[in-house]
Every structure is written in C-alpha cells, then in structure tokens.
Prior knowledge:
The chain is mainly alpha-helical. It contains eight helices and no strands.
Amino acid sequence: MFLLPNQPSPVSSPNRVTATRRAIIPAVLAIGALLAYGMLRFPAVLTVSSTGVRSLIGVLGILLIYAAVGWFGPAFTERIDPRILRAGILGGLLAGFVFVTEMLLEYWLLPSDNTAMGLVEYGLVFAVFFLVGLGVAYQTGAVRNGVLAAFWSAVIGGLIWYGAALLIFYLFNGTPQQTQVFGAEGNYADFARSGLNDFNTFMMEDFMGAGFFHSLLLPIMAAILGTLGAAAGEAFARLRRS
Length: 242
C-alpha cells in the first residue's frame, strides 16, 4: 500500500529483518548445494574445461557477497526507512515470479526461438525495478530510498532466478523438451564453438558463468533503472507537496 509523501513512515519491524535474513541465507546455501550437485554429476567441468574452476570461484564469490548483503543489509536498510525493504521484497518476489514463469513456459510452449520471450521477461523485470524505485521515492521523497528498494528487488529476484534455473536444468536434463529449449536458445551452436566434447560439461560451466554475470548485472541494472524511477517518483512527490 502506497503512502502519501507527507505521511509518517511505518514503524521499523525487527521481524522483517529476521525474515529477510532467514530467506536470503538459506537461498544462498541452497544454490551452493545445487552447484555442488552439478559438480558431482558433471565433474568434467572442473577437469576438462579450461575455465571451469575459474567459473566456479567466480559464482561462489558472488554468492558470498549476496550472503553478506543478506545478513548485514536488512537491518541497515530498516534503519533508513522500513518502506525500502518492504517494497524491495515485494519487487524481488515479483521479479522472481517473472523469471520462473518464463523458464517454465519455455518448456511448455517449446518455441523454436525464445528471443521474444526473453525480451518480454527482462522487460517486465526491468519495469519492476523502475516502478519499485518510483513508488518508494514517491512515498519517502528521497531518491536514495527508491534506488535501495530496486537493489533489494534485484538481490531477491536474482536468487530466485538462479536457484530455479539450476533446478530446472537438472530436472529436465536429457529430455526432449530440454533439447528443444536449448536449441531455441542457441546453446548447441555455442557448444560447437566451445571446443568441449561433452554438452553437459559445457552447460554446467555456462550456468556457472551465467550465475556470476547475471547476479552481478541485475543489481547494476536495478541501480540504473531504480535511479530513473526514483527521480521520477521524487519529482512527483515535490509536485504533490507544492
């Protein structure tokens, strides 16, 4: 529920801080477990691939950063304004829903080219970042608050995306549906250029690389779009006050 800019902010909730920590830390650990499962199932990624170890170190490093943000960030954010974390959680859940829905639709609809679906997916997620920034800045009258809320949306949405992507990869591995999905995404063409001899080894490394770059780029995009949205929200708040 949106509050008008001149209304007092809600009372900070220690329960929300604890709940956020209890969600993010187990999510990071669950993703770590999924990666460990992938290493056991496709061990060649660490021995045959020339960049497999580097990819694993990179994605584990970014997950450690997410864990640190998940542990220390909620209390810091609540002290600034409790509306930031509340909106960030809702935005992150919405972004995660968009990510998971698009991935499942790929396996259901089996398009020959999923470019359009990917554009819609990320267009919706980026719109979430913009609107979260706009809404919180309008409520609080501060651009910084909108940017922080968009950032939290990216953290939570990114964790949902990566966990779901790994899980779906494992569950559908070797199925005709996955063969068609990977063909629509161009993975087989990328595999042919990789120099590797095993497709699953290539895909496991690809998922580790995607986990690093997506987890890094999503908060950056959230900061950019959240800033744009927050600037608009803060401007609307000024207009309303005047």
